[in-house]
Write a structure and sequence with these properties.
- Helices cover 40% and strands 20% of the residues.
- Helix 1 (21-31) links the parallel strand 1 (7-15) and strand 2.
- 45% of the residues are buried.
- It is α/β, with parallel strands linked by helices.
- The protein has one domain (7-299): UDP-N-acetylmuramoyl-L-alanine:D-glutamate ligase, CATH 3.40.1190.20.
- The model has no long low-confidence stretch (mean pLDDT 90).
- The protein contains eleven helices and twelve strands.
Length: 300
């Protein structure tokens, strides 16, 4: 009997404390009915906005050959490498990122219908926080393999070589990415106007939409990882891009709003600013399962 649940292999960062990367993605996906297997590209004590951080960035030797290392080889030998989705986020080394390309090919041999959701995590607010050589690998080797791509505005500009200052330029940049392979491109956030704006395009449906998101006066960590996971889930569950974006963004916005409200409360004197705005995922269980319908997308 085949497994009725969709199953995700999630390859991204891991922190012992807090919610970024796999810690940000796993719980929401499980709540929404997905099995999740996780491979950690980075293992850190906490995310890098804290005063101190300890841990390990994995490289090619950790993934190894010929079947993407001991982890994937173990899954393969036990015939456990059947996935409906692959989700990738932060990768800290060029050699590891190159191995992701082989991983996509291997998983699609097992399941030609596998959906690859790629969050090309490279930076934000005009600053790269991964080695510069990752840009070329993403652009030339990884993006052509992706079914769904979720860059932020800065990553959109890096991948296309085009600055975007208005919605029309965002649309043009999205078309460039479509030309590289991905059938669905979702720009998770753009800094255009007073609000944040999500812009999404699905070639299969022949539409492009935007959704405006009220700004909160805090910069959150892990929100992009949560966005990609929610988009994967709702793209599968809803069946059309407009509903998927509305469910994704409403869930994310209300989790961030709850997190911000929590940050305003009383905290121990030892609490760092980053600790006060760790995503309140567990407290947002009901929001994840049944998000509000406050924010509505507009067809462009």
């Amino acid at each position: 009997m085949s497994d009725p649940l969709p199953k995700v292999l999630s390859v991204q960062s891991h922190v012992v404390f807090g919610y970024v990367g796999n810690k940000s993605a796993t719980f929401p996906l499980q709540l929404l009915g997905f099995e999740v297997d996780a491979i950690n590209s980075v293992q850190l004590s906490n995310h890098t906005k804290y005063k101190f951080v300890q841990g390990q960035v994995l490289d090619e030797d950790d993934l190894g050959d010929p079947f993407l290392g001991k982890l994937m080889d173990g899954l393969r030998q036990n015939d456990l490498d059947h996935y409906s989705h692959l989700l990738t986020g932060y990768v800290g080394s060029a050699s590891f990122l190159k191995k992701i390309g082989q991983l996509v090919h291997d998983l699609k041999k097992k399941n030609p219908d596998l959906i690859y959701v790629c969050d090309p995590v490279m930076g934000d607010n005009g600053k790269m926080y991964v080695p510069k050589e990752l840009l070329e690998i993403y652009r030339d080797e990884i993006i052509p393999l992706a079914d769904i791509l979720t860059p932020n505005q800065f990553e959109l500009e890096l991948l296309t070589g085009k600055k975007v200052n208005n919605i029309s330029e965002v649309q043009n940049a999205i078309e460039i990415l479509h030309g590289k392979g991905p059938k669905t491109v979702v720009v998770s956030s753009t800094e255009i106007g007073d609000d944040l704006i999500t812009v999404a395009s699905a070639l299969k449906e022949g539409i492009m939409i935007k959704l405006e998101i009220p700004r909160l006066p805090v910069a959150f960590t892990g929100s992009g990882d949560l966005f990609a996971a929610l988009l994967l889930a709702h793209s599968h569950l809803q069946g059309n891009i407009k509903l998927a974006i509305e469910k994704t963004v409403n869930t994310l916005y209300h989790i961030l709003k709850r997190t911000y409200e929590f940050s305003l409360g009383n905290h121990p004197d030892s609490a760092q600013p980053s600790q006060k705005i760790e995503l309140r995922l567990i407290e947002s269980k009901k929001i994840i399962e049944n998000p509000p319908s406050e924010l509505v997308a507009e067809i462009l």
